[in-house]
Amino acid sequence: MPRDWSVPRTALLVTTALFAALLSPAASRAADDPAPTPVDRFEGEVPFAAQPAEGIFTWGGDADDPPALRLAERPDAPDGEKVLAGTYAISGWGGFTHDYAATRPAHDWSAHRGIRFWWDGRGDGRKINFEIKDGGAHGEASELWTTSVTDDFTGWKRIEIPFSDFVYRTDYQPVGGIDHVLGLTQMWGYAVTLPTGAGGEFAMDGVELYGRADQSLRASVTTGAVVHPVREGDTAAVRVTLATTGAAPVDQPVTVAYETAGGSASAGADYTPVAGTVTFPAGTASGTSRTIKVPTVRDRTAEAAETIPLKLTVTGAKPPAETPQVVVDAHGLPYLNAELPVKQRVKDLLSRMSTAEKAGQMTQAERGAVSAPGDIAAYDLGSLLSGGGSTPTPNTAEAWAAMIDAFQLRTRTTRFQIPLIYGVDAVHGHNNLVGATVMPHNIGLGATRDPGLARRTGAVTAAEVRATGVPWDFAPCLCVTRDERWGRSYEAFGEDPALVESMETVIQGLQGARDGSDLKDDDKVLATAKHFVGDGGTTYGSSTTGTYTIDQGVTEVTRRQLEAVHLAPYQEAVDRGVGTVMPSYSSLDVVGDGLGPVKMHARADMINGVLKDRMGFDGFVISDWNAIDQLPGDYASHVRTAVNAGVDMMMVPYSYKEFSSALIAEVKAGGVGQRRLDDAVARILTQKFRLGLFEQPYADTTGASRIGSAAHRDVAREAVAASQVLLKNDGGLLPLKKTQKVYVAGSNADDIGNQSGGWTVTWQGASGDITPGTTILEGLRKSGGAITWSKDASAPLTGHDVGVVVVGETPYAEGVGDVGNGNDLELSPADRAAVDKVCAAMKCAVLVVSGRPQLIGDRLGEIDALVASWLPGTEGDGVADVLYGREAFTGQLPVTWPRSEAQLPINVGDTAYDPQYPYGWGLTTLTKVPQGGAVTLKALRLAAAAAERTGSDTAGRALVTKARLIVQQKAGAALTARVAKPFADADHLLLTGRYGAAVEKLTEAYRAA
């Protein structure tokens, strides 16, 4: 444990010379100790900055988690005049770091015994984690070594931590591990992780290195993996490796005494006991290994897994952080027989499990919260997840696979070796992984009106996700967005449930066959239909979550509206065999049911009654992130209510211990019945068996070389081109000609982060060069035309034939992006200025890169061409493809484009409907635009009705599309309510297979134009 003692700074004012001398640094250290080396005195010598510069910076799990820091003058400062002070209120994880500059050499701390600092104690008993950064390229790509300090004192206290107290972090490493040796010769700084829960204040001062190095720190003994599984009868080989600071040979012998002792295996019956000593003599080189062999005994009896701890006693070096365990794999039991039907395997395994093991299977933790890797086995955890931005560093496919394999290895020490099911939010490609193919968000896919293309994007996503060892994707979102003020509206395929249903082919892209038979393949993942039900219909102003205005609010509907709009996509998902369903944070208020607003995680009538019983959903229900904490009552009530409502697995990122304990207590007390418990666990195990995880728990990286490949990016590029919606094209300005001189401006023309949106690398996404890809500007330049680029349109405007101004939103996710929560639907002042300058000087096309419509009606008169580009992702070439005519504009609006915010919510089917552009609108640049008038439309209606009668869907859709293009050509800029309403209604009718009625509505719109 760290040693500490108090020396109040007021004592330094004592005038007694002797006492002052005793307090001096020279007198407080041993005569032969080196002088303390300052790391940070917080007098301003180290700035607030980030890599690659030296500096102090904050970080956290979400936007609210980073602490607020300042250099504060304090009369009681222990070292100098200022201290580092801060406030925090952390729900996930957060803290701050002092990194040394990556542009300069690392520091050598090896001459010192440890590190110390002053801390202003609050006496609240909370733990502060203190980490140091060792090796690697720089502070954010180094190994983390950690210890903790308990704040059980008040006032200033100097905390001294010998380097021998630091342990290698096994739950999270930015680089996945370098050499697992605290070398101390290449140090990059330190980090402080602050307590979660109730907010607080802190103050810190005088970080410095102290004392003379402990010789034992120069050498350590490691065993590589902590867990060593073997088949019964085989011999386990545990490699013991010597590692030293700076790779220097040891100057003293290092001995490792070993013996097998304890565990669930029986000596003699299950294994041959071993004991002995291995020695690394003086002069042994770093990296030298010895092997300890542990023979196991074959007895031909079917058994659960058994553990054999190998106790190591190390002299002359630092021992391993954990005792290695040999595990004799479970064998011979029916649930392990892949030839048996899944249902039979589930029944057998379930019959063997304890209540605690079942509770564990229903528990999902965030990877970063599992500070003790042994917790995976200790709590029999069923699942881990990566929240948005929770990634290994470097954020590579190899690091993902290694991280997940290390987690899976921990499950081998449990009785039945039930593998974890690891989940991620891959909502538009494997968007957490830098270098993955990032697809258009769902709103863009909805604009393609191409179910086959949607399926192909899902297949690419599944292949890239599974290749990193992840078998489960929290996608697709089947919300029907009814109010574009919602910060999640871009996660919807559109505002029409019929459109959402048509795009659910993405489920087959992710999962393969409807019966789940493809899930074991190395390019398929389990899909999640979310968020059940009505998340897209919340009333503006009804949210009670922080500063959100609509997200997580209340959906007020009649029973008929609920069925027709919000429930319909879920029946389609169930019919397609979707493996999991996630309830919504929002509340449902069904008019006339007498219940009022009830959180979806508590609605047994909807989860058990509608989803599972009526719709026949046989997968499992996974809660949303910490969603049960929003239920009324105490924690036991949260658990009892959600489980009994039908939630099978609980996403409790940072409270997995509390949830598991509470669930076990509820089962013992009868609050949760054994039948409900068994049903939940059976559903979870069924999907694990279908995924083949019992046979292959580790990552199959066969497809890793195809992550971000040209073939995968070609699919994304095709989706981008098909998603572009041409709203206006006066004078046929588009497509551009390569002979034209093009002036490009606007905030979103050259920003891969902006065009990818939220849920890209991090939860909220970010502007800038965050992942490999092609920006829209780069795509235009590769198209071969003459391009002038000026973001703010400050470059000379003369001498150009046409302007392309790319404007829109910056990234956001969930309620952070709600209109009214610091957001609106207006272009930024800079974007408005760019549009005005360029469009006043030349013919111009304006591209809106956004997750929802932007209010641009006041500038339509000066804009010649207007394109809704949505959030295209990493393949900006797809935008250039339609701008230069390599592909035709064919996209259609998946949502209504309003004239003003006052019109919201506005949706197809509304009685009063007078938008800027109606749902389904989308001009084309096809070389042959259909011609004709009322007579042609009549013929099309008859032919479409005939196609409908005969079930000729392809012909029916083609006929309606031809009629739509004729109507658009006549309507042009004369889009009145009398045109817009039947036009939008026609597209809904098309999607529901009523082709004759669709052309009839289009004829009505034609006559009104």
Explain this structure to me?
It holds the Pfam family Glyco_hydro_3_C. The structure is a single chain. The protein has 24 helices and 38 strands. With 1009 residues, it is of the alpha/beta class. Strands 1, 2, 4, 5, 7, 10 and 13 form a seven-stranded antiparallel beta sheet that branches. Strands 3-6-12-8-9-11 form a six-stranded antiparallel beta sheet, with no helix packed on it. Helix 8 (451-466) runs antiparallel to helix 16 (710-723), helix 16 packs across helix 20 (877-883) and helix 21 runs antiparallel to helix 22 (953-971). The model is unreliable at 1-29 (pLDDT under 50).
Short description:
This is beta-glucosidase. With 1009 residues, the protein is α/β, with parallel strands linked by helices.
Q: Which sheet architecture does the biggest sheet show?
A: 7 strands, antiparallel
| Sheet/helix structural class | alpha/beta
Question: Low-confidence parts lasting 5 or more residues at pLDDT below 50?
Answer: 1-29
Can you give the mean pLDDT?
94
Task: Tell me the Rg in angstroms.
Answer: 31 Å
Straight-line distance between termini: 81 Å
User: How large a portion of the residues is in β-strands, by DSSP E?
Assistant: 15-25%
Number of strands: 38
Silhouette: globular
Helix content: 25-40%
Note the total helix count.
Answer: 24
